[in-house]
């Protein structure tokens, strides 16, 4: 890694050191809120675009060019590794991932292959291309790799698609622990291989998305989920890159998500950072402006962003983000103003 990259505000804050400005990026910064994204995606399915290195590079760079954010996030999806190993699934526009044959039994789990780097050459090529391009943007912009955490990916595999209650998933967890354990191990191995491939190709940080972990009680999280996420994060920790661990509605789980092995705990917008920071212990935090504040007048949005930055000062490190992904109807000009505001906010 170059010195410029190492010293970037994003990686400095992720290590828990003091950067010269609060680093900012946005979950789902690449996507439907950008006209240039809609133009590139025209006539190409989501999954096809995730397997085309040139498209991945272009789409990942779009928000970096437009906003000058402090980090790029690799354009892909949490179900892409499953697609790469042959699981019959699609990403349906406006719906999300849909799995043709939901996983129910030990035999179903055993039929899911492991992931090897040879199955995802387009990921390696795209990461390498991006790292080369990003080195020349704003003095060196880090690339965040990502994977879906075992629980969140399991929820799509077991439900067969998006769900609100995750009832079938949790029913498996409660009633068939041996199937659950095998499934979590399988997905954990796939997530690890997906992240290892991205880091080996040059990604300088990773985010493990356990978006739906907030559906669990702390006891169930600790017993049935945390060990599997911890195994993924431990392996990536050996590679020496910072690990961000994020979920939605996780006010009750922030300590446990930190203990799973994160360097940075992502906080959704519902939990004020002043409440989150004491819970995550000796770790940095990421977040957490309400994503709907972009629809407020700019001065209202930036006043609330200032509150987030001020609260973040009590943390070991703070990376500014929205509390969840960019909403597709977001005005990109508001995100440009928000980026400039955060980066220009005086820290002393
Ligand atoms: O953040 C980024 O800019 C990087 C790209 C990214 C995508 N998905 C692209 C995408 C990332 C990090 C993800 C992760 C992801 N995918 C998560 C975890 C993050 C979160 O939001 O909590 C989850 C739960 C998924 C599953 C998934 N894929 C959903 C719920 C959807 C949205 C369905 C819809 O159409 O509203 C997708 C599809 C998807 N993934 C899109 C994008 C840009 C939209 C598809 C399109 O543009 O056609």
Considering the chains and any ligands shown, give keywords for the structure:
9 strands; two-stranded antiparallel ribbon; Uroporphyrinogen_deCOase; EC 4.1.1.37; 348 residues; porphyrin biosynthesis; TIM Barrel; 7-stranded parallel sheet; lyase; alpha/beta; binds coproporphyrinogen III; cytoplasm
3D architecture notes:
By secondary structure, the protein is α/β, with parallel strands linked by helices. It has helices at about 5, 10-15, 35-40, 45-50, 55-65, 80-85, 105-110, 120-135, 150-160, 165-175, 175-200, 220-240, 255-260, 275-280, 300-310, 330-345, and strands at about 70-75, 90, 95-100, 145-150, 205-210, 245, 265, 285-290, 320. It is globular. The model has no long low-confidence stretch (mean pLDDT about 95). The structure holds coproporphyrinogen III. It catalyses: uroporphyrinogen III + 4 H(+) = coproporphyrinogen III + 4 CO2. GO terms for molecular function: uroporphyrinogen decarboxylase activity. Pfam families: URO-D. It is found in: Cytoplasm.
Biggest sheet: strand arrangement: 1-4-5-6-7-8-9
Number of helices: 16
Helix content: 40-55%
The count of strands amounts to: 9
- Report the β-strand fraction as a percent range: 5-15%
The span between the termini is 29 Å
Helix/strand/pairing class, anyone? alpha/beta
Largest sheet: 7 strands, parallel
Radius of gyration, whole Å: 19 Å
CATH topology group: TIM Barrel
Residue stretches low in confidence (pLDDT < 50, at least 5 long) are none
CATH architecture label: Alpha-Beta Barrel
Residue-averaged pLDDT, rounded? 97
Overall tally of structural domains: 1
Return the string of H and E elements.
Answer: HHHHHEHEEHHEHHHEHEHEHEHEH
Spell out which ligands are present. Answer: coproporphyrinogen III
* CATH top level assignment: Alpha Beta
Shape: globular
Family: Belongs to the uroporphyrinogen decarboxylase family.
GO molecular function: uroporphyrinogen decarboxylase activity
Subunit structure: Homodimer.
Function: Catalyzes the decarboxylation of four acetate groups of uroporphyrinogen-III to yield coproporphyrinogen-III.
